[in-house]
Amino acid sequence: MENERSLARFERLAQMRHFDEACLAGVMSREIHGELHIGIGQEAIGAGMAEALRPGDAVVSTHRNHFHALAKGVSPKALLAEIYEKETGLCRGRGGHMHPFDLSTNFSATGIVGASLPVALGYAYGFKLRGQDHVAVGVTGDGGVLTGGFHESLNMAGAWDLPLVVLVENNRWAISVDINEVSATETLAERSHSYGAWGRKIDGTDPDLVAKAFAEAVDHARSGQGPAVLEATCHRFHGHFEGDHDTYRDREEKRRIRKEHDPLVLYRAKLIEAGLADAQTLDRIEQTSKEAMTALLEEVRDDTQPDASGALDHRFVGATSP
Ligand SMILES: Cc1ncc(C[n+]2csc(CCOP(=O)(O)OP(=O)(O)O)c2C)c(N)n1
Predict the structure, then answer these.
(1) How far is the CA of 249 from the centre of ligand 1 (A)?
(2) CA-CA distance, 220 to 173, in Å (whole number)?
(3) Does residue 307 fall inside a structural domain?
(4) Does the pLDDT at position 311 exceed 90?
(5) Could you say which of 119, 137, 211, 290 has the lowest number of CB atoms within 10 Å?
(6) What residue numbers bound the domain in which 183 lies?
(7) Domain count within the chain
(8) Choosing from 37, 191, 236, 238, which is the catalytic residue?
């Protein structure tokens, strides 16, 4: 049982890594336009959060949203097609990578930093009003914690015991701003105390630690005890977006981070050491995941792009066509 769960977590880590590598290919080939924010190095958070989420729960993510979408059960095909600006995409290629929206899984994201939290708060309030035992997860980076929306959302969730889980992906950097130089508190999780919320800081490079802490945070919110703040530390291996020269970080430091904190490498070693898997099994999982993603990418590349004449189709408000 324990090894099945561990293998499933390893598989999710691999799938997330390969998903973002498939996105990178589209930047190199110029099939993907605009800024692309990938999460390579941060996979353990997405891989760890998947298990505690139920279909009715809502997740509202950020500009760096791919892994949270996959964790919530968004179709990898529809997400990749959206990122590749295809008619088969989640939003028929009109939203792009920063604005995926999936009514069927209650997943959405916003490119406005900090704005994921008030939207998640709205879901949480709606769940409470309807007497549903769903939770709303608002994801933010460390930079987003410093916005007014973080305070306002947690204050209201604390005052009204709303089922809001704030998941903070602390990768240290908000573009070029080091959180350690701009935060008035030592940790971001300790801000939870001001709102009577559950709070914890964990190492977000280990999917086991994430799964355990995230399940506790979700249980707390689901059981009507009010909001939770989970700060998961992680490392962003790439620049802020593909095209960022990333000169604010030392080259040697970046090399060290990749060498010492790769969640896939670390989890592989952990499973082998604990006798939960052998190297061949893990190789096979990685290989299968890579092949599946290669096939998916080929399929997506063959899909059609929306025609410019349909730019105003599929809007909720003011649509001219049915
Ligand atoms: C309201 C707002 N201000 C500024 C930006 C520009 N911007 C995009 S991402 C980003 C930094 C976000 O940092 P963080 O929240 O730590 O997330 P990370 O990129 O590390 O995942 C900024 C300032 C924005 N998108 N929205």
Answers:
(1) 17
(2) 29
(3) no
(4) no
(5) 290
(6) 2-301
(7) 1
(8) 236
Residue 132 one-letter amino acid: Q
Q: CA–CA distance from 26 to each of 1, 283, 288, 300 (Å)?
A: 38, 26, 21, 11
CA distance 166 to 66: 17
240 is catalytic: yes
Does residue 285 sit within a domain?
yes
Token pair 């990418």 is found at 297
List the one residue out of 110, 190, 113 whose CA is nearest residue 150: 113
φ, ψ dihedrals at 136, nearest 5°? -115, 125
Q: Which CATH number belongs to the domain containing residue 256 in this structure?
A: 3.40.50.970
Cα 3 to averaged position of ligand 1 atoms, centre (Å) = 37
56-82 pLDDT, tens per residue? 999 999 999 999 999 999 999 999 999
* Chain centre distance of CA 32: 20
The number of the ligand 1 atom at minimal distance from the alpha carbon of 174 is 13
pLDDT tens track for 54-63: 999 999 999 9
Domain assignment of residue 310, yes or no: no
CA torsion, ordered 82, 317, 311, 62, to nearest 10 deg = -30
Q: What is the percent of the chain where pLDDT is above 70?
A: 98
Residue 321 resides in a domain: no
Full-model pTM: 0.97
| Distance from Cα 49 to the centre of ligand 1, integer Å | 22
What 3-state class would DSSP assign to 58?
strand
Residues having CB closer than 6 A to ligand 1 are: 63-64, 111-113, 140-144, 169, 171, 173-175, 240
pLDDT digits (tens, 9 = 90+) for 178-201: 999 999 999 999 999 999 999 999
Q: Is 210 helix (H, G, I), strand (E, B) or coil?
A: helix
CB-CB contact of 61 with 108 (8 Å): yes
Report whether pLDDT(320) > 70. Answer: no
Average pLDDT of the chain is: 96
